[in-house]
């Protein structure tokens, strides 16, 4: 039976306070969808990246890596098409080859600001961002991975290659230095949230690093918000080969506390056989959704059609994912009798009907 979902409309300025925690492209994809439903968004983003253009700026300018932050700012920005194109532009030659203008914009803002979090806030103001983007910490941190065979490697960008070489699972990741202090605005946003979303994104390099920052797990654990983990659709080469949904949940709990969340949103959309076969050639596969094992961990699996295939790659669909999350909030949150909430917008309706 179809759930009742289109009777009322909540203005975006009165939408739920949602905090999303993670990094990478999965997080920015989700934000593009969520901003259609609420203006009360806070993205708490990892700063452990040390590869690519972000790594170069981090090393050259001694600043936190801008890449994941910039992706989230772009996702939430309300800009003209030309400005959006400019932010996405990557230089094609010379010493700046491969570097994005958006990264340089944030680096310049950092140069004229008293701190990185202020630079992020100022860039957000310039680009009329919906909600807030918050670095999880302003400390200079590196990510170290330890493997089941005892090997270890320091540097987020090196974990993929080391795991392929060692050919065994990651047993633990940690930050160097350990227990950096969380940005106060990040913990405040978590404590004030109506809904907290972990992921989607790389398990060990985008989601878990945030939980290793002092104050984040405590704030999540103490919050009365609805807490949801958005699991990846496929396993990730060089990180989670052979993992099930329960393996993802278990890894998060082992790096935080058991019962950090009680709902895991997974994908029910079918993946074409040809696409799945190509992923299999790279050592990746559709995540096995082991409902009973997740239940033993105290987590309910909610299976919804949230993925799509774009250019041969399986991705979360921003509109579908956001809609299911908002519906989860409306269904699971305690409401005053007669205070009916359903979330629907014309953008989604035109896109999907």
What do these coordinates show?
- With 353 residues, the chain is an alpha/beta fold.
- The chain has 3 domains: 218 residues, Rossmann fold (3-Layer(aba) Sandwich), CATH 3.40.50.10680; 86 residues, no CATH class; 35 residues, no CATH class.
- Helices cover 40% and strands 16% of the residues.
- The protein contains 15 helices and 12 strands.
- Strands 3-2-1-7-8-9-10 form a 7-stranded parallel sheet, with helices on both faces. The chain has a 3-stranded antiparallel sheet with strand order 5-4-6, with helices on one face. It has a two-stranded antiparallel ribbon with strand order 11-12.
- The longest helix is centred in the last third of the chain and has 15 residues.
- The protein is globular, with a radius of gyration of 20 Å.
- The N terminus and C terminus are likely disordered.
Secondary structure layout plus pairing:
Layout: E1 18-22, H1 24-34, E2 41-45, H2 52-61, H3 67-76, H4 81-88, H5 101-111, H6 116-126, E3 132-135, E4 142-147, E5 152-154, H7 159-166, E6 170-176, H8 184-192, E7 195-198, H9 203-211, H10 216-222, E8 226-230, H11 245-254, E9 263-267, H12 273-281, H13 291-296, E10 300-304, E11 307-310, E12 313-316, H14 318-332, H15 346-352
Parallel strand pairs: 1-2, 1-7, 2-3, 7-8, 8-9, 9-10
Antiparallel strand pairs: 4-5, 4-6, 11-12
């Amino acid at each position: 039976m179809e759930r009742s979902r289109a009777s009322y409309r909540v203005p975006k300025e009165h939408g739920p306070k949602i905090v999303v925690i993670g990094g990478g492209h999965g997080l920015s994809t989700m934000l593009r969808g969520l901003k259609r439903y609420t203006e009360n968004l806070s993205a708490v983003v990892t700063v452990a990246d040390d590869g690519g253009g972000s790594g170069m700026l981090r090393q050259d300018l001694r600043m936190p890596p801008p890449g994941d932050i910039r992706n989230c700012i772009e996702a939430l920005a309300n800009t003209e098409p030309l400005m959006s194109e400019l932010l996405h532009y990557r230089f094609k030659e010379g010493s700046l080859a491969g570097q994005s203008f958006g990264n340089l914009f944030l680096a310049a803002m950092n140069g004229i600001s008293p701190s990185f979090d202020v630079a992020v806030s100022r860039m957000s103001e310039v680009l009329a961002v919906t909600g807030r983007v918050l670095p999880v910490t302003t400390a200079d941190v590196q990510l170290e991975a330890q493997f089941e065979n005892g090997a270890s490697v320091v540097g987020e960008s090196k974990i993929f290659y080391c795991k392929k070489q060692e050919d065994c699972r990651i047993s633990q990741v940690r930050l160097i230095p350990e227990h950096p202090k969380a940005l106060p605005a990040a913990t405040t946003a978590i404590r004030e949230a109506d809904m907290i979303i972990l992921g989607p994104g790389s398990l060990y390099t985008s989601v878990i690093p945030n939980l290793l920052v002092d104050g984040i797990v405590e704030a999540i654990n103490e919050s009365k918000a609805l807490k949801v983990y958005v699991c990846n659709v496929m396993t990730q080469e060089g990180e989670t080969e052979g993992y099930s949904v329960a393996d993802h949940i278990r890894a998060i709990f082992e790096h935080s506390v058991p019962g950090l969340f009680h709902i895991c949103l997974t994908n029910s959309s079918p993946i074409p056989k040809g696409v799945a076969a190509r992923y299999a050639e790279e050592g990746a596969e559709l995540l096995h959704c082991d409902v009973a094992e997740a239940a033993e961990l105290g987590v309910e699996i909610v299976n919804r059609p949230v993925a799509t295939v774009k250019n041969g790659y399986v991705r979360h669909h921003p509109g579908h994912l956001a809609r299911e999350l908002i519906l989860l909030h409306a269904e699971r949150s305690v409401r005053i009798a007669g205070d009916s909430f359903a979330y629907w917008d014309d953008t989604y309706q035109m896109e999907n009907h």
